[in-house]
Structures are given as structure tokens and as C-alpha cells.
Amino acid sequence: MIRSVFIFLVAVGLGALTVSGQDEDAAADLKRRIRALTDELRQRSDASLPKIDESARPVMRIYDIGDLVMNYPNSGGDPVDLTPSKFQFPEQAELEEPQSPFEVDWIIEMLRQLVEPAAWDSVEYADVQPRLGRLFVNNIPRVHKKIDAFMKTLRKLADRQLRVQIYAVPVDEKDAALLASATRTLPADAAERLLSRPSMGSTELVCRSNQQLSQRVGRRVGYLGDYDVEIAQEATIGDPISKSAFSGMAVDVRAMLDEGGKGARLDIELSRTHVSEPVRRVDTEHGPLELPELALTRLRTSAWVPLDRVVILGGSTAGTNPCLFLARVTRMGTKTKTK
Question: What is the pLDDT of residue 166?
């Protein structure tokens, strides 16, 4: 190598002495020879360096474990304003908050014990540190590959997310037999027949097993409900008072996947209100009043629902706006037909 460097220096020196007396072609040839010699020196230098085993060099990777350690709190909705109706279910006892699938310290301990236990001591600077729902892992590529497989296994164990779909469909007297018994699982053809009817409302909630969620789907219908009457001397003044009624569906549900993963227990409270329009008006001495007609169907029940099947929760065939409540529960990630 020293000999090559010497040759290179001699070549550069000679070139510097003779360039001034040569034409441009000779100068370009000298530059090419210098570049060729430089490349040869670089290749010999690289060949003399020791080979590095990349598979034995630790690499830092970040693993997002937020979905494995995050708590999913219950979410109770605000009471539905059913003005002018004052009907309310009695309050339910407060239930325990659902817990996260795994603890951070437990995941770290399992990594050290199950994923290449010897590597955590033999590999220089091998370590794992938790920060804000992430694991910062420094180890060799072979260990990282096994960590990926370990995380996939944990997610399969923690995959207890459920999709709860609720439908309200019209009902007639011929369907009275469907409401004669407790919750009933429908054959596929009967379920499709009912779901093909014009929708009277539907909602979908995604929750973890044993998590309570609420959802309100609908709109507020405003109306002129009263007057604030003031008497001034011999005159009376009526200031209008506006009110509103909720028209739509309100759902409070807790879904608990059974151990076998074949079905889920639903604790559910349903309220469906329908405000008939146009709103009826009457005249008073202070001005017109609006008297909305409100159809209300409410249901509270607990039922075991097979996954991917449609069940009848209940309903009513009486009143001005009768409806039937249907439910379907599926595991997240599976495909279902939705109306």
C-alpha cells in the first residue's frame, strides 16, 4: 500500500511539473490516470478493512403498543330530552370501568423472558424502555423479527373489539308473533327481509368487550311552546318561549364477548322518538302555539347475541309509529352486510 501511495505522489508531482508545457489533451490524459490511480488506492484500502457482520449490530426500533395498554373508559350519554314526555327509566348502578388488555411492565418482562432471552445479556447495549405508549428497543435484527411475531400474538389475544349495529324497522300486525317471546335469533332470509324495509333509524357503535358506550342519532325539532305573560297596567304582553323535542334514536349499550368468542351479552337501553310534521298549531290570545305529536318507543333488555347473526330485541306494534328493534354484533375486522 505504501508503494502505491508513493507511486501516486510521484505521478501527481510529475503531472504538476509538466502540465504547463503540455497541450489540453495531454492534461486531460493525466487527470484520467490520476483518477484511475485514486480509485485503485480506495479499493485496496476498503479491502484491507475487517468485514462487519450487520446481523450482529444492534438496531434501535420503536414499537407502538398504545392499543395494548390503553384504557378505554365508559362513555355515558346525556339523557334524551323527551319533552313533553316525562318518562324516564330508573337509574342503573354504576359499573366498573374496563381495564387495558395488558400492562406495560408485563409486556417488557415477557419480551425479556420469551424473545431470545440470552440476547438481552450478550448483545452490547441491548435494552427496552417504555415511553408514552411506545417501546424503544435496541437489539439485533434477529430479535426484532421475533418481537414483531410476539406483538402480533398479543394483538390476537387482545382483539376483543366489537361492532354493535342497531336497526329500527317498520312493523305491522303480522309481525306481532315476532314480539311474543324473548330475544329471538332470525334466519338469514328473515333477517334480510326485515332489513330491506324502509329504515326508521340505525346506529353503529364500536367498543371493547365490557365497555359501555352511548350514541345519539337524530335531530332537534324546535317549536313555539309557550308565552311568558307580563301584565303592564291594562295591557298584557306575551314573550314567546321556544322549546325543542328530540326526533331520532338514542342507544346505551354494554357488550361483553363470551369466553368462547361465539357470542356477546348485550345490556342495552334504546329510545326512539318521532316528531310528526307539520307540527300542529293552535291560536291563543297571545299568538299561535305549536303542539308537537311525539311517538315514543323505549326498550331495556339484556340478551345473548350470537356473532354475525341478526336478533330481535323487541319493539311495539301499537301507537302511531310502531317499530321493531334489531341488533347484530360482529368482531372487528370481519365483513358484514349492512343496510
Answer: 93
Whole-angstrom CA distances from 207 to 31, 162, 272 are 72, 5, 21
Residue 69 contacts by C-beta under 8 Å, 6 or more apart in sequence?
100, 101, 102, 103, 104, 107, 133
- Please give the grid coordinates belonging to residue 239: 314573550
275, containing H or E segment: strand 263-275
How many Å apart are CA 119 and CA 144, to the nearest integer? 11
Show Cβ contacts of residue 315 under 8 Å, excluding neighbours closer than 6 positions: 168, 171, 179, 297, 299, 322, 323, 324, 325
Q: What is the DSSP letter of 146?
A: H
> Residues 6 or more apart from 184 whose CB is under 8 A from it?
178, 311, 312
With the C-alpha atoms ordered 184, 189, 192, 194, is the resulting torsion angle positive or negative? negative
Q: What is the pLDDT of residues 146-156, one digit of tens each?
A: 999 999 988 87
- E strand or H helix that includes residue 105: helix 104-114
Ranges of the chain with pLDDT below 70: 1-24, 41, 44-55, 76-99, 173, 175-183, 233-236, 333-339
3-state helix, strand, coil split of the chain in percent (to 5) is: 30, 40, 30
Nearest to 199 by CA among 106, 18, 325: 325
> Grid coordinates in use for 190?
328473515
Residue 144 CA to residue 228 CA, distance in Å, equals 72
Count of CA atoms in the C-beta half-sphere (13 A) of 227: 15
Report how far residue 7's alpha carbon sits from residue 203's, in angstroms, rounded to the nearest whole number. Answer: 83
- Reference 75, options 247, 254, 250; nearest CA is 254
Rg (CA), the chain: 37
Rounded to whole angstroms, the Cα distance separating 24 from 37 reads 20
